[in-house]
Amino acid sequence: MKRIAVYFWIMLMSFMPMLVHGSVLTLPEDVQKEISNAIRVGNISELSRYFNTSVDLTVPGNENTFSKAQAELIMKDFFTKNPPLSFKINHQGSSKDGSLYFIGTYQTTTGKNFRTYYLIKKIGDKYLIQQLQFEPD
After folding, report:
1. Is 14 exposed, middle or buried (0-12, 13-18, 19+ CB in 10 A)?
2. Which end of the chain, C or N, has fewer beta carbons within 10 A?
């Protein structure tokens, strides 16, 4: 009986990092859904809630690190010129530092498609967009 208990504790301890890691990713999953929904409908006020104080932003005609306010204006212009039809996440992943990345396809009502990439980092207790890219597909 003691061997079974020892075996159980060994197994539990070996799986503990996976359990903890899984619970840490619960919050970003919600954040990811809110960000994806904001992109899907072109809602810049909702999207910019997740911008870090500076954002590495790439859209046609603009590529640089911008302040949150500048990035908001640039994205508002992008959504106006490229109204959303749909947005779908094709791939996602994470890095050792806790950053999460998402790659998707943004389709417009004008028939253009953009490969979309965004990187979320944990800053304090919030998950914020550090990098956002819309590149013609």
Report:
1. exposed
2. N
Domain that holds residue 72: 25-136
CATH number of the domain that 128 lies in? 3.10.450.50
List pLDDT tens digits, range 43-91. 999 999 999 999 999 999 999 999 999 999 999 999 999 999 999 999 9
Residue 1 per-residue DSSP state? -
Instruction: Quote the pTM value.
Output: 0.79
C-alpha span between 113 and 15 (Å, rounded): 42
> Which amino acid is present at 55?
V
DSSP-assigned letter for residue 125: T
Does residue 20 fall inside a structural domain? Answer: no
The strand ranges marked E within the chain are 51-59, 62-67, 84-94, 100-108, 113-123, 126-136
Q: Is the pLDDT of residue 10 over 60?
A: no
Query: Six-digit token pair at 51?
Result: 């911008």
